[in-house]
């Protein structure tokens, strides 16, 4: 029987992908005590980066929000693996960190990162409200437009 969060994913029309394998010398998540720290996830879909380029330089705000949302979906895939397949173990989204590839004059980072934050609340309800940092960077791996990392409390 699917759990509460799996049922919510289904209601939202979201199918979690297989968690992406690390591309360098790191692990995809680390569990310590009741915290799970998930390494930064880029907007991968079917093994390919779905959103590339720079916000404000060819990538629209709408595409950036979609990229951040997809990053969060990939975070949740890693989180499910960290929880042994049971997302109902998640008690709280503690923190999200967003990295937005953009030129120096771009100032709409928070709007882009809302793609991830809004989905966190849609999926986990009040437990999805989190602390957040969002910064602009000159580039990301594979020319990804966005990368999102996260910290979660689990039972």
Automatic annotation (TrEMBL):
Coiled-coil residue windows: none
Pfam family name, one: YjgF_endoribonc
Domain Endoribonuclease L-PSP/chorismate mutase-like: 6-144
Signal peptide: none
InterPro entries assigned: Endoribo_LPSP/chorism_mut-like (IPR013813), RutC-like_sf (IPR035959)
Name of the protein: RidA family protein
């Amino acid at each position: 029987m699917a759990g509460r969060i799996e049922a919510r994913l289904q209601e939202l029309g979201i199918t979690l992908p297989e968690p992406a394998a690390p591309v360098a010398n790191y692990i995809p998540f680390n569990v310590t005590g009741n915290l799970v720290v998930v390494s930064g996830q880029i907007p991968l879909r079917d093994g390919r980066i779905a959103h590339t380029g720079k916000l404000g330089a060819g990538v629209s705000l709408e595409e950036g929000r979609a990229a951040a949302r997809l990053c969060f979906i990939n975070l949740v895939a890693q989180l499910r693996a960290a929880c042994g397949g049971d997302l109902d173990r998640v008690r709280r989204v503690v923190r999200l960190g967003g990295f937005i590839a953009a030129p120096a004059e771009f100032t709409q980072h928070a709007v882009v990162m809302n793609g991830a934050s809004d989905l966190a609340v849609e999926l986990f309800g009040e437990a999805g409200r989190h602390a957040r940092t969002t910064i602009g960077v000159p580039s990301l791996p594979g020319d990804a437009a966005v990368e999102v990392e996260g910290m979660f409390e689990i039972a």
